[in-house]
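ok, trying the design again with the full structure, not the truncated one.
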């Protein structure tokens, strides 16, 4: 039987999804994060719509009704609203955002600390457009020797069609860890279509070229000179994905979730709690800035802490 604790349902399905966790009962119908490495990604790769075990609670049926391809919150907001929210999010420090989410019970939203901005002084905030990719199984060199024509190279056309001003592309690399994905020229393409940056579980390439793209923040595990074409390919766009986490093995990312990143790391804010999280984070920012100014003016730490309550 599922066990309910602090607003979370943790049922177990042996051999299929060893542990699925729903966050905040009201929102749990829409998303889940699994502690079984690769399980969530495998489900997405094998099915056109998310698989739901028949023994899930009734609220799971609401998840089905919510599921609608590209029918996410991002598409319900006009560009002006998204950009206004994006500017507010961009002012939030990741550590303060984590504190706000921690207070709300969402303490597993920090991505693996190996994924962070390539250029530490840059910040990133925007709504997620998700990409899932896998290592390309074809041996193109062998096909060439056999005189066979390889299939057409994967393009980003499907990704281009769902980008919007204020988007952040979030890429589940599918475990491929050698190639540099979405380099300089591809990043220019994303930027021209409105993207503020990209977050990759893997490597990116063209460090020197990326450095000069204005108002664009790439986040990755590092750089690699190896071309991804013919070695890695996109298999899905704008579907829920799983990214490696810090306090949990995986963090669920849905299209329309808010992505906030700076030198401290990358945090995913579920869209259904984004408004509340933003207000809380802004209040923490206000108190911390007040304390910072008082300390700079000569107030003792003890006095400033008593006044503002930040440490």
């Amino acid at each position: 039987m599922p066990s309910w604790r602090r607003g979370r349902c943790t049922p177990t399905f042996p051999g299929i999804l060893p542990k699925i966790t729903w966050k905040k009962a009201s929102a749990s119908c829409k998303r889940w994060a699994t502690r079984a490495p690769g399980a969530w990604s495998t489900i997405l790769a094998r099915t056109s719509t998310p698989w739901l075990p028949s023994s899930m609670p009734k609220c799971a049926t609401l998840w089905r009704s919510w599921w609608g391809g590209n029918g996410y919150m991002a598409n319900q907001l006009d560009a002006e609203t998204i950009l206004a929210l994006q500017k507010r999010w961009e002012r939030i420090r990741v550590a303060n955002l984590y504190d706000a989410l921690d207070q709300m019970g969402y303490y597993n939203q920090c991505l693996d600390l190996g994924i962070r901005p390539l250029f530490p002084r840059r910040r990133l905030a925007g709504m997620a457009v998700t990409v899932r990719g896998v290592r390309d199984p074809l041996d193109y060199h062998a096909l060439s020797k056999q005189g066979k024509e390889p299939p057409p190279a994967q393009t980003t056309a499907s990704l281009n069609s769902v980008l919007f001003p204020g988007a952040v592309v979030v890429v589940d690399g599918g475990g491929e860890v050698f190639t540099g994905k979405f380099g300089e020229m591809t990043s220019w393409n994303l930027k021209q279509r409105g993207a503020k940056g990209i977050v990759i579980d893997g490597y990116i390439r063209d460090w020197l070229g990326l450095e000069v793209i204005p108002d664009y923040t790439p986040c990755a595990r590092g750089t690699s000179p190896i071309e991804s074409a013919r070695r890695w390919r996109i298999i899905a766009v704008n579907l829920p994905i799983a990214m490696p986490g810090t306090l949990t093995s995986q963090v669920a990312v849905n299209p329309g979730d808010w992505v906030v990143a700076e030198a401290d790391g990358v945090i995913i804010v579920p869209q259904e709690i984004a408004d509340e999280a933003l207000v809380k984070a802004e209040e923490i920012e206000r108190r911390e800035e007040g304390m910072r100014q008082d300390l700079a003016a000569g107030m003792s730490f003890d006095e400033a802490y008593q006044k503002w309550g930040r440490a």
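Keeping the full-length input from now on. Residues 1-67 form one domain.
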